[in-house]
Amino acid sequence: xxxxxxxxxxxxAAFWKSKWLSARKELLTNPLVVRHKKRRQIHLxxxxxxxxxxxxxxxEAELRLxxxxxxxxxxAVADVVAAMPGGxxxxxxxxxxxxxxxxxxxxxxxxxxxxxxxxxxxxxxDEAGRSEVLHMLQRFFGNSRERLLxxxxxxxxxxxxxxxxxxxxxxxxPDDSARQA
Length: 181
Fold this sequence. Notes:
By secondary structure, the chain is mainly alpha-helical. It contains eight helices and five strands; from the N terminus they run αββαβααββαααα. Among the domains are: about 10-40; about 60-120, Winged helix-like DNA-binding domain superfamily/Winged helix DNA-binding domain (Arc Repressor Mutant, subunit A, Orthogonal Bundle).
């Protein structure tokens, strides 16, 4: 690396001043910097990643545990671990963590029996499914049921029996004028 050479002091001073000003500007605009007003010192604080925003919808792991709890009813964590299908066995602590997340989301509640907590679903399977569909409807289709149906019908995967059943369901749905009366 070649050393910098300046023919005069003014050029050297201007160079280092520009470097100092750009570094100072970066420090002043960085949200991870805290400044002491009295001492005029600048301190960097450790960057902590923001935790992901907690979603009200169920992840795949949460849904697997909820299906077990909907099937079994009130259960301890050890019972849920034992009821996991053979290929997807999880550690006790992983299941416990996921169950606590489900409890904080409002899908489960617990009661204490002896030293163990028994967890039971407080949201039914149908209600959870309806909530997921409404969430998807809002996120991807702008709350338009028509766009959702067009998407379902447009992919060509519907069997004639499914199409017939959908037509029957639509025909059986009360009209808006009948609802308002």
